[in-house]
Structures are given as structure tokens and as C-alpha cells.
Design brief:
With 296 residues, the protein is α/β, with parallel strands linked by helices. The protein is built from 11 helices and 13 strands. Strand 9 and strand 10 form a beta hairpin. Bound molecules: adenosine-5'-diphosphate. Adenosine-5'-diphosphate binds next to helix 1, strand 9, strand 11 and helix 8.
Length: 296
């Protein structure tokens, strides 16, 4: 499935990351392909920036984030990013369209994923001709029925909503089925006062999904603890009495599941484990379940 947004910075990569973690935590084998030429961010999200991509006969091997753990019901998570290949060539990618399309085509066909339940593709933001050609390449390279569809990300601000309308029209134009809309940055999990407030208002994503007659998958608040987890490797920790969607997030720490001090290590293989303590995890668990049900 494809994660799209008409606008950069709405949280497309964060959503891709969390969908991947949630699918893997519920036992699926997951791959993430990052074709965002404008700024590949998956290596940073998964803390595998220094990973070396191995060439094998017939293609490239994706980089493992973590392996299968059958005891814990966790499926393997692997990632391949243009970022690995662009490294050392200067980050500003100034290739012209045809070269990009050729690169992306090769990228889609030459990664040796092997068996996998779900492949998430993080695409560049926008709806230009270049994006249309990327979408067409995707559809052409995939086997029939293999592209389950697109998850479209928006934020509650009106501008982003107008932009994402373009993205939904883009899906119609390129015949990519829309799995659903996610409204990101809807509300704020305050790190100090145990409250979740709506800072941008709410409802834009839901209204837009209704207008386009596509499913609305959910609203994701801003949680600075998620950013801390990605940036520093710190296990999420919330003040006493933080209740989000009826779940108390300070309790997990009291009962000692993660100890009383938050663990700080940027070991990529521990990311999914630590993410279990994040307030956004139950929201994404539900969204991932809904997606699995809808795409089969
Ligand atoms: P995009 O891929 O659309 O450019 P990113 O996923 O990189 O956007 O998000 C932009 C910034 O916002 C990142 O620093 C990310 O950590 C932060 N961010 C996105 N969603 C959330 C969220 N729900 N809570 C906290 N921070 C978020």
C-alpha cells in the first residue's frame, strides 16, 4: 500500500513508520520502501541511517529493522530507501524526470523482498506530472491486485485539507484505490499536564473522506513522546493520570512493564518494543487492523 500526501510535513513518514510497526507488532511480515526522492526519511525514522545495503545476485537486500519473534507474535520489519543509495552523492537530488522514473522502476523491481505480508511505500508529496508517472510506474510494475491502494494523510488545517483534496483527485485520476484518510496532528498530548487538546480544530479529514466517499481511518494527536522516541530512542513516558481514548498511559510504568526510568538507546531492533508504550500505539493498532480487514 502507498502512503500519500499532497503536502510535505503533514506526517506521511511518521504515519508510514507507525503503520509498519503496528502491522509487525500484530505478527505480519512488513517491508517499507521509501521512494521519497525529495527527502528520504525512513532510514532516520527506523534509526538505520548507517546501514549498508547489500547487493546479492539479482538485486539488493532490504535492511532489517527487526527480525521475526514468534514468542512475542512480532513479524519481521525490513526497509529499503533511496536514502541508502543517495548517500555520499549529495542529498540534493536534481535528477530530471526520466532518470528518476528509471531509478524508481529499478528500485521497485530490484529489491529482493522474498516472502512478505505487506509492503508500505512512502512516496514523495505532491500531485505533479512526476507523481503521476511514479504512480503509473508503481501500477505497471506490480502484479495485478498487488497495489492494495493508498492511505492519504492530512492535517486539520484548511490548507492541508485543500491540498489533500488534490491528492484524492490524483488517486481517482491514476486509478489507485483509496484505503482511507488519516488526519494527523489532530490534538496534542501535553507532556506536562496529562491532557490532550485540539489545537487546530478537528473534523477536516472526516468531512473530506465523506465528500470523496472513502473510509476515514482515524485521528492522530501530536505526541512529543513519539518524536523523542524517534530522535533519541527514549521509551515514551507520560505524567500520572494521562488518559487517552480511555487508556491510562502512566499505569504501564507504575506496573513496571518498562521499569520506572525510561530506556534510552537507539538500537533499531528495540523500536517496536518501545513503541508499545507510546500513546499513539493503540490508535495505530486499530487503524492497522481496519486496513488489514479492508485490503485482506
Ligand atoms: P512528512 O513525511 O509528511 O514530511 P514527517 O512524518 O517527517 O512528515 O513529520 C514531520 C515532523 O512532524 C517530524 O519531525 C515528525 O516527527 C513530526 N510529527 C509528525 N506526526 C507527528 C505526531 N502525530 N506527533 C508528534 N510529532 C509528529
Amino acid at each position: 500500500m502507498n502512503v500519500l500526501s499532497g503536502k510535505g510535513g503533514v506526517g506521511k513518514s511518521s504515519i508510514t513508520t507507525q503503520l509498519a510497526l503496528s502491522l509487525s507488532l500484530s505478527g505480519h511480515s512488513v517491508g517499507v520502501l521509501d521512494v521519497d526522492l525529495t527527502g528520504p526519511s525512513m532510514p532516520r525514522m527506523f534509526n538505520i541511517e548507517d546501514a549498508k545495503v547489500t547487493q546479492a545476485p539479482g538485486g539488493w537486500l532490504p535492511v532489517p529493522v527487526h527480525t521475526t519473534n514468534s514468542d512475542k507474535g512480532v513479524g519481521q520489519l525490513r526497509c529499503m530507501s533511496l536514502g541508502f543509495l543517495l548517500r555520499g552523492r549529495g542529498d540534493a537530488v536534481v535528477w530530471r524526470g526520466p532518470k528518476k522514473t528509471a531509478m524508481i522502476r529499478q528500485f521497485l523491481s530490484d529489491v529482493l523482498w522474498g516472502e512478505m505480508d505487506y509492503l508500505l511505500i512512502d512516496t514523495p508529496p505532491g500531485t505533479s506530472d512526476e507523481h503521476i508517472s511514479l504512480a503509473e510506474t508503481l501500477l505497471k510494475e506490480a502484479r495485478p491486485g498487488q497495489v492494495a491502494g493508498a492511505v492519504v494523510v492530512t492535517t486539520p488545517q484548511a490548507v492541508a485539507t485543500a491540498d489533500v483534496r488534490k491528492e484524492l483527485n490524483f488517486c481517482v485520476k491514476t486509478s489507485i484505490p483509496v484505503i482511507g484518510v488519516i488526519e494527523n496532528m489532530a490534538g496534542f498530548v501535553c507532556p506536562n499536564c496529562a491532557e490532550c487538546t485540539d489545537i487546530f480544530g478537528k473534523g477536516g479529514g472526516q468531512v473530506m473522506a465523506n465528500d470523496f466517499n472513502v473510509p476515514f481511518l482515524g485521528r492522530i494527536p501530536i505526541d512529543p513522546q513519539f518524536v523523542m522516541l524517534i530522535e533519541t530512542g527514549q521509551t515514551p513516558e507520560y505524567p500520572q493520570g494521562t488518559i487517552i481514548n480511555g487508556q491510562d498511559f502512566s499505569k504501564a510504568l507504575q506496573s513496571g512493564s518498562s521499569g520506572s526510568t525510561s530506556e534510552v538507546t537507539k538500537d533499531a531492533s528495540l523500536l517496536a518494543e518501545k513503541y508499545r508504550d507510546c500513546s499513539l500505539e493503540p490508535i495505530f493498532r486499530k487503524i492497522a487492523q481496519d486496513i488489514v480487514t479492508s485490503v485482506g
